[in-house]
Amino acid sequence: MKTIAIIGAGLGGLAAAVLLAAAGNKVDVYETHSYPGGKMKRYHVGGARFDFGPNTITMPQVFQSVFERSGADPNDYVQFEQIVDHTNNIFPDGSQFLASSNRAKMLQELERFNIHSSDYDRYITAVTQLYNHSSNQFFTRSFSSLKEYTSLRLALAFASVKPFTKMSQFHSSFFKDERIVQMLNRYATYIGSSPYKTPATFSMIGYLEFVQGVYYVKGGNPTIAEAMHRRAKELGVQFYFNKTVKKLKTANNEVTSLVCANNQEKSYDQFILNGDYTTVYPKLVEKQNRPSFTLDQLVKEPTSSAFVILAATSQKTAASFHHQVYFSQSYEYEFYQLFDEKKYPEDPTIYICNSSVNDDSAVSHTGGDNLFILVNAPSLTNENRTLDKEQMKEKVYSILEQRGVLIRPYLIEDKVVSPKDIEAEFQAYFGGLYGFSSHTTMQAFNRPSSKTKDFQNLYFAGGSTHPGGGSPMVVQSGINVANLINNHK
Ligand SMILES: Cc1cc2nc3c(=O)[nH]c(=O)nc-3n(C[C@H](O)[C@H](O)[C@H](O)COP(=O)(O)OP(=O)(O)OC[C@H]3O[C@@H](n4cnc5c(N)ncnc54)[C@H](O)[C@@H]3O)c2cc1C
Q: DSSP per residue over 169-221, as a string?
């Protein structure tokens, strides 16, 4: 039995906690906030319930596997419901495309856009291959030893996931209609990146949404984190909420103990950092003791951030699907402004999640909608930090009004969560949602690995490390770390 400290109760930390405790280790989790789940968080605004963080859930099997591997039936903890016709895409010319994981329905929609089924089938075959290569060779690797980097299978897999083709180019090779390309290009934002710079590898998200499906958890997606917390406690994990770790003490290539903000110190055999690698690791370990974390890490480009409005309305609005996207006129210019100019786009694409469509318990007191409205935001710079939140919010409402979604006349209450709030609350790297962007091949394929080279007993799990940012990948990072520790006798 090992004693293990996990710093952070985000999804990566929770998954690792469950699996390490199930293997018989003594696990303690330290968390700054008062709740489990980190960015997967509940809000109550104007009498309605909201999910912050993951609104679109894919790959439910990854979350379920944490319960299964711990010897429990996942269905006793959390039930995933598939949303078949999942996302209504609304273009500036007024046309709409309802994306679905039902092939027949997709073909019907594509026919309205004069797209032949053979183009869709070619696209699905290609994204299925991207997914299969990535999941077989990348997701479950921890990249913790040189052997893992130099495997022939990895090299072959790398060559087959189109690392040097850009996502937008890839999508344009299947579809000529720019609206469809724009709809697919949005998948780059799932990793906080631009489709004009991101490798086509991440087009595999299309496979997840069109083949595996999009899911929601009744009672709100944060039920997933709460369920992992419950399972961890059943297995004896001790949680210390409202407790920030301020320092890791080290000696002879090992982390020896952690020190909390109240100066309480405790020793462990192993340590896992689930807080943002890019910002929390350098805070916890003195510079001379972490040679692998050099200054050049800090000049890497951050992912995009998000400007979020949580709006509770007294009536149902025109945002009548679980997920809907109001696209901008020029996607290319929007991403140029976001990443090259680091400005809020003049004409932003607006995403709205209205989970009350499938879960009226979220609005049982109001009878209206619970609108999670998200606009992609640039990572923080000195200039854009001064954003006037109220002005930006009114701009978003005005654009939505022009597109037929009236919110202000029915508004009970709203709340804005800005990039500065995300940075402050989650120590997010320049407010970015997932650490470093995936724009260069190096940044996309050489994310911080699950184990540091600096110490024999320090591991990383979370969205800013390997394998990546979306919530299933974050859970996979926790599984990978648990495997590493459990397999290292
Ligand atoms: C607006 C938004 C929308 C998103 N949408 C989606 C989506 O639709 N689908 C999807 O799959 N994903 C989405 N994500 C991403 C997803 O929420 C995250 O990738 C995932 O929840 C991150 O989990 P994590 O384990 O990396 O850690 P986090 O959630 O960042 O949690 C880390 C925890 O560590 C704690 N911590 C840090 N330092 C310390 C310390 N020193 N001491 C103690 N505790 C510490 C923090 O308080 C925090 O609770 C979204 C994220 C955001 C912000």
A: HHHHTT---HHHHHHHHGGGGGGT--TTTSBGGGGHHHHIIIII-EEEETT-T
